[in-house]
């Protein structure tokens, strides 16, 4: 189950085009935002909704700049990113290990699969109150929850990946005298890597979605989710919008720069998938 | 014979695992190492589950949640499929909507909950809109890529055999894109299900399974929380496996197109 995001190929071709075409492409991508922004402005200035609830874009931009200059927004962002990365690292290490084990040994599969398939379909956020009760409010429970929830897609995909390694590759490596360690290092791991990367990517997307919500519930001192949720109490809609913009940018950056790059360096270069 | 033996052994192992896990939990719960309010015994959880099912509260909560998720999901399907098809068939539409969709897609739906609470108040409307937001994008994207990936050979073959626009659309493009569309529905239901629980927690509204969990936390009713978790898991499982599984079997698998649906 690959995320549909992978199919966006708009910016892919950007580098290959010549100047004029490139400009036209940029203009074409910006045009819809201009239209939507214009409609937004008109609605905001027409005072159909109270201004506090529906700020103009200038107000959003100015509060964005103000928050950035005063260092509040960067602080929130950094805390969120640290939480995301530590939760995701936890999920990556445990998820890949469990998934590969499940793929390699029938015994591990029989033991883990029932537990995993019972816990996985429950929406991650439903565990949040349980984790809050068990591990208290704050960082520990939010990182653990992010790790726990994003581990499932990683486990499932690593497991499928290892199982999808062609039997004939394993047999031929064995008949050429590869021992277990080398079989794993040179055949199984590269063979399963496209799936594992897909799993990591889905896991990261999941972690990101859950983290924003968890920050709203877990009463952490800093964090973008908390900033948005806190701003609601004071009707600071402009601050909320600024936070949402940052969240969107980080989400896009994670997808575009982190995973595209990793994929390009590994599986695409090895010719396992075409980009 | 060996295959059956293997399967039998797997089932036995799975049963043993679950029993051991349950027993370990029970021992931990009874040991008194953790406060019983935080770690209720399985018997207590089962009792809470049956009590709430028997007096109908849990069923009512589940009905509210289902209503919200199905409403939002249907909206997403009604908007997402036509938009995806239009984007794939007309380049102008694609040029306008693709940048917007790619920019909005990475915003987690929960980030919008506080904003929607301010705009639309607490209750059904906010939750349904959040579900709609979460479910639309996978729907649009999968429909779009499905229609685009219809084999051009089929289109040309149908055209050469004299199919007009109309029958080309209904007889070739829609069936050809259906594996993707069904995958999209599956993904967007999954998203919708996650979103509804979260939205109900944050935008508390008296009814709904997410609200039950959150409310139970305030009163340390861990048994009710776990019971609601079980209900949520069961409903999710039923939809994922039974509903979408059987839809897939009835359509894509029967038409012999599962390969494309795995994506």
Summarize the structure.
The complex is a heterodimer of chains A (275) and B (263). Chain A folds into two domains: 1-48, no CATH class; 60-268, MetI-like fold.
User: In one word, what is the shape of chain B?
Assistant: globular
CATH architecture of the largest domain in chain B: Orthogonal Bundle
Main sheet characteristics of chain A: none
How much of the sequence lies in strands of chain A comes to under 5%
Number of domains of chain A: 2
According to CATH, what is the topology of the largest domain in chain A? MetI-like fold
- The CATH architecture of the largest domain in chain A would be Orthogonal Bundle
The end-to-end distance of chain A, rounded to whole angstroms, is: 17 Å
Distance between the termini of chain B: 34 Å
The percent range for helix content of chain B is over 70%
CATH third-level topology of the largest domain in chain B: MetI-like fold
């Amino acid at each position: 189950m690959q995320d549909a995001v992978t199919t966006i190929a708009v910016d892919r071709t950007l580098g290959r085009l010549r100047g004029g075409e490139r400009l036209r492409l940029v203009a074409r991508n910006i045009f819809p935002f201009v239209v939507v922004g214009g409609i937004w402005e008109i609605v905001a200035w027409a005072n159909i909704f109270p201004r506090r609830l529906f700020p103009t874009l200038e107000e959003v931009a100015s509060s964005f700049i103000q928050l950035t200059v005063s260092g509040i927004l960067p602080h929130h962002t950094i805390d969120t990113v640290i939480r995301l990365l530590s939760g995701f690292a936890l999920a990556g290490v445990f998820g890949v290990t469990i998934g590969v084990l499940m793929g390699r040994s029938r015994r591990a599969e029989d033991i883990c699969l029932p537990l995993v398939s019972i816990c996985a379909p429950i929406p991650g956020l439903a565990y949040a109150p349980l984790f809050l009760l068990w591990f208290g409010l704050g960082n520990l429970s939010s990182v653990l929850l992010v790790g726990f929830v994003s581990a499932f897609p990683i486990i499932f995909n690593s497991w499928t990946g290892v199982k999808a390694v062609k039997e004939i590759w394993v047999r031929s490596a064995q008949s050429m005298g590869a021992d277990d360690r080398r079989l794993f290092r040179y055949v199984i791991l590269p063979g399963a890597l496209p799936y594992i990367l897909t799993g990591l990517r889905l896991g990261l997307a999941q972690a990101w979605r859950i983290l924003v919500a968890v920050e709203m519930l877990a009463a952490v001192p800093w964090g973008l989710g908390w900033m948005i949720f806190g701003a609601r109490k004071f009707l600071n809609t402009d601050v909320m919008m600024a936070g949402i913009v940052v969240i969107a940018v980080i989400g896009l950056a994670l997808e575009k720069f982190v995973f595209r790059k990793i994929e390009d360096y590994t599986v695409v270069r090895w010719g396992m998938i075409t980009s | 014979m060996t295959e059956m033996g293997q399967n039998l052994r797997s089932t036995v192992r799975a049963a043993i695992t679950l029993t051991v896990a349950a027993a370990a939990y029970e021992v931990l719960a009874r040991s008194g190492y953790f406060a019983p309010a935080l770690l209720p015994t399985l018997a207590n959880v089962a009792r809470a589950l049956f009590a709430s099912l028997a007096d109908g509260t849990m069923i009512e909560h589940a009905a509210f949640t289902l209503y919200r998720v199905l409403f939002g999901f249907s909206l997403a399907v009604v908007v997402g499929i036509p938009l995806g098809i239009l984007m794939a068939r007309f380049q102008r539409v694609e040029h306008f909507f693709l940048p917007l969709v790619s920019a909005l897609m990475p915003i987690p739906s929960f980030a919008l909950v506080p904003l929607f609470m301010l705009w639309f108040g607490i209750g059904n409307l906010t939750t349904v809109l959040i579900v709609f937001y979460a479910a639309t994008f996978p729907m649009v994207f999968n429909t779009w890529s499905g229609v685009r990936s219809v084999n051009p050979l089929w289109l040309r073959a149908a055209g050469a055999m004299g199919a007009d626009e109309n029958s080309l659309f209904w007889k070739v493009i829609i069936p050809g894109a259906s594996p993707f569309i069904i995958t999209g529905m599956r993904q967007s239901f999954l998203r919708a299900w996650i979103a509804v629980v979260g939205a109900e927690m944050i935008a508390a509204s008296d009814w709904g399974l997410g609200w039950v969990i959150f409310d139970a936390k305030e009163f340390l009713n861990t048994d009710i929380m776990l019971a609601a978790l079980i209900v949520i898991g069961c409903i999710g499982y039923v939809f994922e496996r039974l509903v979408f599984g059987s839809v897939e079997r009835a359509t894509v698998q029967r038409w012999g197109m599962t390969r494309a649906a795995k994506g």
